[in-house]
Each structure stands twice: as structure tokens, then as C-alpha cells.
Amino acid sequence: MKLHIRNLGRIEEAEIDWRPLTVFVGETNTNKTWTAYAAYALARYATREFLGGVAPYSAVLASQIGHAAEHVRAIVNDQLVKQRPAYDSMEQSPEVALLGEFDLDELHRRFPLDRWQVRIDGPTFADLMGIDHQRADGCDVQLGLDDILVQSSNDGKIEFVYDSTQRGPNLVASYSWPGSRQRRRERVFLDPRADISERVTREVVRIALLGVFHEAIVLPAERKAAVALIDAIEDGSPLPFSQPVIDFIERMRAARRWDALARRHDVEQSLSQSTIEHGLRQILEGTVSFDPDDRKLQFERQGCRAIQLHGAASLVRSLAALAVTLGARSEERCLLVIDEPEMNAHPRAQCQIIELLAQLVNQGHYVLITTHSPYILDQLNNLVNAGTVPEERREKLAERFTLKTPDAFLDPEKVSVYHFRADGESSDAKVLVEDLYDRDENLIDADTFGNISEDLERTFLATVEANLNRE
């Protein structure tokens, strides 16, 4: 995917090659977080959970969807005529009726996603970040989608059934999706007077043409404090934060509700066996979960009694959300945006974190991070170099890594790294966005951190010399 940026903060213009693992590095106040949040907001339009018209994610795809919908509607009408020519509205339908089957591959051939772009303008971005509209004047961020991301798995069919036997009329969509082990079923309540063709058309577009990701999840820099707010603030209360932070809080609340529901119905959650749970157990030396009694987050260190999360170490509170928001969805392709994953982490833990994120990428997820950590960048260099090692040598090489698994070794084609650099010393200097990945050498240029280390070394030598020259 391609991310095109104009007039975002101090960035006049930039183009970012958005790959499964994309990393933003650079000094403070160079608009890395703004870019990451804009990418997250754009990706929300390309998720199956997105229904359109939910502020501040306005229907920026309206004109493009409208064009595709005209053609999809013709296919839908053709199916409806074949399946049920006797009625035009749901009032005339039987209790259960097959409305049609639609081939995802055929839809993708007729409406390739790579011709589509989603866009955020200045006012939309200002609302997203909760800032004055003048701060985002002229802002324009566009995401060029990638058709390969929506290739179907299994039989690649969407089946629509009209069902009025359960709590009124429903449209039931059944389909398979990349990474899923079984067909999904979605039930949407319908107005009995609704036009079948229009409603099925909307669902075909949403599922087949917008579903790049199952969902987009953001872990903002405020996540440690925000975790506590899921208990301190009532559901539905207005929250004075940027939209990504609000989304994070709501995501945590939803995870708690799902956990309670799963326990009540004795549903086995995939989290217990997931890559995330296993990796976090190594990093945190314990597990994060919701207390079954008071529903608050708790941390249980190996061999110790559980304590409420607010009493746990800073690193535990920083990474807790990763376990409860993405863990249960480990079989679905998600986008995960993390602002500074190294927060409060020892250098070894930082290396473990990037290895864990690399495993998620290899499972089919997309990960976008901002970072100030030389350890994360250096270990990422190691992972992409290990990704070119012959298969028979990988197990032995994996012993050199912190999580000790070759599952973290990365294909270089899955990685992009960008440096956000101020072009001058003044506070209003323009920010340049530069590609740090030398693909010919298979090397990420980490001079952005190396220069600081060299300065520190020269400063140390200067202090030694000053002491030696004392009279």
C-alpha cells in the first residue's frame, strides 16, 4: 500500500511504502505520531468492522463506493432474479430465502482494489486529533489500497440468506476470509420495507471490497494511563482525548465485555494458545487477564498471586492492552499501530518486543510502529538478515535471539523503515521523510541513532581530557 502525505504538520510532501511491518523513527516533534494516526484512521475505512458514517470516520469513500456499487447492484439484481423472481421487497419474502452467492475473486477482478484510494482532509484530521482546524489547514493524506490484501481463502464465496425466524427480519452473510479456519456468519437486522437489492449491494461492497483488515487496533502513547480509564469513566461518557485514544479505551472495554461473555458461556478463547500470549509471557514473566470476579485487569507473575494491574510494573501496564485486544483475534488479519512499543522496557525486553511483532507479521497481520529505540532498529536489522538464511540453519541461529524462534525471521520484502528528519535547526523547519532501508545491501541505516552515540563518546573523551589537563 502507498501512503501519500501533503501538509501534515511540518511535512510538506511524502510518500510511504506501507508494508506488513512499517517503522517510523526520528527526533521528537517530527510528526511521526500524526502520520501513524492518520494511517490508522485511513485503515479504519478498509476494515470489515467499519460501517460508515461513524464520526470522525466520515464516508470518504462515498464517490468511489457509489461507482462500484452501481456495477455490484447489477450483479446483485441478476442473482436475486435467479434465486427469487417473485418478490421485490422483504415484505413479500418467505421466512427463509437464499438471496444469492457472490464470488469474491470475480468481484476483485471486476473492481480491483488497487484502483481505490481513501483520503483524509484537513478538517477530518483536525477532528481526529482533537486540534484546531487551522492546525491542519491544507492537510491531505491518501492511502492507495492493495488488491492482493483482499484475496479470498477457502471457497471464496459470500452467501446471503434472508431470515425472519429470529427476532425479526435479518440479512445473514456467510463467507470465508484470509486466515480464517471456518466460514464467518454476520447477521444484520433489516427494516421489513427495505429494498433487498440495495441492502445486499451495501453488504457485498463492505465485505468484498472494503475488508482489507478484520479490524484496526491502536495502542497510543497514553495507553498506560488509558488502561485505568476503562474503570474510572462510565461507558458512553464523553472523553477529552484524540480519537485514537478514545478508540483504544473503547477497544479495552469491548475486550472486557467479550471476556465476560466467553466465561459465562464457557467459550474457549484462542488467546491461551496464541503467539501473543506466549510471547508476552516470556517478556513480562507472567500473564495479564481480567479478574473473573470484579472484571478488572490483573497481572499474575509466574509462581506468584495475581495483583491488580495498577500495582504491576510499568512495562506490564504498557503491554497489557496487546494481550487483551489482539490476542483473541490472532486468526484474523488485523492492523496494529503502536506508538513507541519500547516504552518502559529494558533493552532486552525491547528486542523481545520487536521479535514478537515480527511473529505477528509472519502470521499475516500488519504492524506499524513509531520508535526512538536503537535496540529495536538493530534487532530488526538482525531479523531481516536472518530472513534470508537457508531453512536448515535457522533453528540453530534462532538460539541467538531473545525469543529463540525462527518464526520471527522476516522476509525483507515485508519491512519498510522511514526516518522523519527536520530539515534545519529552527522550530518551524520542514520535516523530510526518508527511506532508511537499503534493499541492495539488505540493511537498515541506523545513523539516526549512531550519530548520538558518537557524540556521547566524544563528550566523554572531552571530559576525560579536561580532567587530565587540570593544573
Structural class: alpha+beta
Report strand order across the widest sheet. Answer: 10-14-15-3-16-17
| Mean pLDDT across every amino acid position | 78
CATH topology of the domain at 1-47 and 334-456: Rossmann fold
What integer value in Å does the Rg equal? Answer: 25 Å
* Distance, first to last CA: 63 Å
Q: Helix tally?
A: 13
Q: What CATH first level of the domain at 1-47 and 334-456 would be assigned? A: Alpha Beta
Q: What would you say the CATH architecture of the domain at 1-47 and 334-456 is?
A: 3-Layer(aba) Sandwich
The poorly predicted ranges are: 51-60, 85-90, 151-155, 269-273
Number of DSSP E strands? 19
Protein name: Endonuclease GajA/Old nuclease/RecF-like AAA domain-containing protein
InterPro entries: AAA_GajA/Old/RecF-like, Bact_Antivir_Def_Nuclease, P-loop_NTPase
Domain Endonuclease GajA/Old nuclease/RecF-like AAA: 328-376
Please render the helix and strand layout as text:
Layout: E1 2-8, E2 11-17, E3 21-26, H1 32-44, H2 62-83, E4 96-103, H3 104-110, E5 117-121, H4 122-129, E6 140-144, E7 157-163, E8 170-175, E9 184-189, H5 196-209, E10 215-219, H6 223-232, H7 243-264, H8 275-284, E11 286-290, E12 297-301, E13 307-308, H9 314-325, E14 334-339, H10 347-362, E15 366-371, H11 374-386, H12 394-398, E16 415-422, E17 431-435, E18 437-438, E19 443-444, H13 447-468
Parallel strand pairs: 3-15, 3-16, 10-14, 14-15
Antiparallel strand pairs: 1-2, 1-6, 4-7, 5-6, 7-8, 8-9, 11-12, 12-13, 16-17, 18-19
